[in-house]
Automatic annotation (TrEMBL):
Subunit structure and binding partners: Part of the 50S ribosomal subunit.
PROSITE patterns the record matches: RIBOSOMAL_L24
Family, as annotated: Belongs to the universal ribosomal protein uL24 family.
Organism: Acidihalobacter ferrooxydans
Protein name: Large ribosomal subunit protein uL24
PANTHER family: MITOCHONDRIAL RIBOSOMAL PROTEIN L24
Pfam family, one: KOW
SUPFAM superfamilies, A to Z: Translation proteins SH3-like domain
Family matches, as Gene3D superfamilies: 2.30.30.30
Role according to the record: One of two assembly initiator proteins, it binds directly to the 5'-end of the 23S rRNA, where it nucleates assembly of the 50S subunit. One of the proteins that surrounds the polypeptide exit tunnel on the outside of the subunit.
GO cellular component: ribonucleoprotein complex; ribosome
Length: 105
């Protein structure tokens, strides 16, 4: 089980986008994440007339290291550390360390 999953709201804690919030679009296998509108880079793309793609400079998200983001806690309004807990019905869930609130309902 991973601390940060697809669809989670995260806060960037290091790098050029420090302090910004975004939603995780994809979790990559090498410990990196794609976060919506975070770590935007310009890519020079060649056109492909057969596929109907136009060339030019496009902006897209680049992967960011998972250690540079924290899960956003709506109760406190800040990034928070995440722990694991096994409930009475043998489900393993994530919880916020600051207020012991369960992330996965």
């Amino acid at each position: 089980m991973q601390r940060i999953r697809k669809g989670d709201d995260v806060v960037v804690i290091a790098g050029k986008d420090k302090g910004r919030r975004g939603t995780v679009l994809r979790v990559l296998s090498n410990g990196k994440l794609l976060v919506q509108n975070i770590n935007m880079v310009k890519k020079h793309q060649r056109g492909n007339p057969q596929a109907g793609e136009q060339g030019g400079i496009i902006e897209r998200e680049a992967p960011i290291q998972a250690s540079n983001v924290m899960l956003y806690n709506p109760a406190t309004g800040k990034g928070d550390r995440v722990g694991y807990r096994v409930l009475e019905d043998d489900r393993k869930v994530r919880f916020f360390k600051s207020n012991n609130e369960v992330v996965d309902a």
